[in-house]
Amino acid sequence: MSAPRVAVLGSGPAGLTAALYLSRANLPPVVFEGMQPGGQLTITTDVDNFPGFPEGIMGPALMERMKAQCERFGTTFVTDEVVEVELSQRPFRLKPSYADPVEVDALVIATGASARYLGLPNEARLQKSGGGVSACATCDGFFYQDVHVVVVGGGDSAMEEASFLTKFASKVTIVHRRDTLRASKIMQERAMKNDKIEFVWNSEVIDVLGDDQVTGVRLRDRLDGTERELACGGLFLAIGHIPNTKAFEGKLELDEAGYIRPRVPGRSLTSLDGVFACGDVQDTIYRQAITAAGSGCMAAMDCEKWIEDQLHTG
């Protein structure tokens, strides 16, 4: 067997940690950064719960530091996304969107998950045209100076998005399907104490209003079925994510929601030898930067051991 070649798909905390550990093990990988280099932390403001930063750190800054650390030990980065994989034989063949196909002996998948939308026609239309529908408050909040915006969701992400948007918006209305939030207590308290934030309970958005720009949303009360319109100038979605596993459908074992299913619970091993998964693409429970980084370490160590075994038996 020739010198092992390893690819890491994804450049969030999981992918970069995997790349760091692989590089330190003299297996410097090529990292395909994906469509969102740095992963979800690049759309996060203050990160206060990543160990080692007592004063907190901005999400993009944390990812830049992690990338620089990988580069120090020899990791190569490609700003591209792998859209097709051939895993039926080794070496595995990867086809990026723009670059030439690449063959590797082992693969670490850290492609993460993408924001979930409501699936409404007008929502999709206004999102694609930049007309006021977004799933990234950090990216787009600046454009809503003194505008009333709506945030859909009830978890930590929704509370964080809403709190961040109050820096710009005149008012933020959180629409939630239930009458209690899933967010942690500290995030709930932070949102509820903010004078700019109000809540609409037991309601769902059933349509987005506006031709070229959001002018409001149509709400349905989930208790009595009544409908009403709520005027606003922007709609932000914070209702979860969909795992980025389209390229692996029919090639790796996935669960009902599309997440990569580990061959052994608590491990990075997938249904195929030589392929490992880490981060949000396989985590349906924790979904935290630190757990993603930890799983990236696990994937790299599992990958290193597998390659070593191949060298001894090949």
The percent of residues in helical segments reads 25-40%
Number of helices: 7
Distance between the termini: 6 Å
Low-confidence parts, pLDDT < 50 over ≥5 residues? Answer: none
Q: What is the percentage of strand-forming residues?
A: 15-25%
Structural class by secondary-structure content: alpha/beta
Q: Please outline the major beta sheet.
A: 5 strands, parallel
Strand order of the largest sheet: 5-2-1-9-20
Helix and strand sequence: EHEEEHEEEEEEHEHEHEHEEEEEEEH
In a few lines, what is going on in this structure?
With 314 residues, the protein is of the alpha/beta class.
Tell me about this structure.
There is one protein chain. It contains 7 helices and 20 strands. With 314 residues, the chain is α/β, with parallel strands linked by helices. The strands form 6 sheets. A 5-stranded parallel beta sheet has the order 5-2-1-9-20, with helices on one face. Strands 11-18-12-13-14 form a 5-stranded parallel beta sheet. The longest helix is centred in the last third of the chain and has 25 residues, at 289-313. Helix 5 (156-165) links the parallel strand 12 and strand 13. It has helices spanning 13-24, 59-72, 121-128, 137-140, 156-165, 185-192, 289-313, and strands at 6-9, 30-32, 46-47, 57-58, 76-78, 82-86, 92-96, 102-104, 106-109, 113-115, 133-134, 148-152, 171-175, 197-200, 203-209, 216-221, 227-231, 234-237, 241-243, 275-277. The chain is elongated.
